[in-house]
Design a protein that fits this description.
alpha+beta; Arc Repressor Mutant, subunit A; 3-stranded antiparallel beta sheet; 6 helices
Length: about 150
């Protein structure tokens, strides 16, 4: 059994580190053409088959409320970065697809954003520590089942 105080302290440290990194990335986001949240939507769409996903699935991929995601997607539509279509399998649903222009804009920003991430993470952690961090956070996202 894990010590409660140790677990809570580790969680607090992880949470504060995550907030600090996100704040640093947001303040140094490399462009005025899109926000970090808009980038997050485009990033997640770029990883989906055919670069498209149901709006409700996007809601599960990003860390925003459903109404915020809907408004954000509408802004991206207005700028020509994504398009919205009725879901052919469920007329109540909406499919969001990244446009060619949106994908190109995303790729341009992604290159700059990756440089910022590399500088931020690499200035604080060694390569070995980055590998260890990736392994630890993967365990938190996908914990192994307990043995009986």
């Amino acid at each position: 059994m894990t010590d409660r105080d140790l677990a809570v302290s580790a969680w607090e440290s992880l949470f504060r580190a995550q907030v600090g990194v996100i704040r640093a990335l947001a303040s140094e986001f490399p462009t005025r053409t899109m926000s970090l949240n808009e980038y997050d939507v485009l990033f997640n769409l770029s990883l989906q088959p055919e670069r498209r996903a149901r709006l409700r699935d996007i809601n599960e991929l990003v860390l925003l409320s459903q109404p915020s995601v809907s408004r954000l997607v509408d802004r991206l539509v207005a700028r020509g970065y994504v398009s919205k279509h009725p879901d052919p399998t469920d007329k109540r649903g909406t499919i969001v697809a990244i446009t060619d222009a949106g994908f190109e804009q995303y790729r341009e920003v992604a290159r700059l954003h990756m440089q910022t991430i590399t500088q931020l993470m690499g200035s604080a952690l060694t390569d070995a520590e980055l590998v260890q961090l990736a392994g630890l956070t993967a365990k938190l996202r996908c914990p192994e089942p307990e043995e009986a």
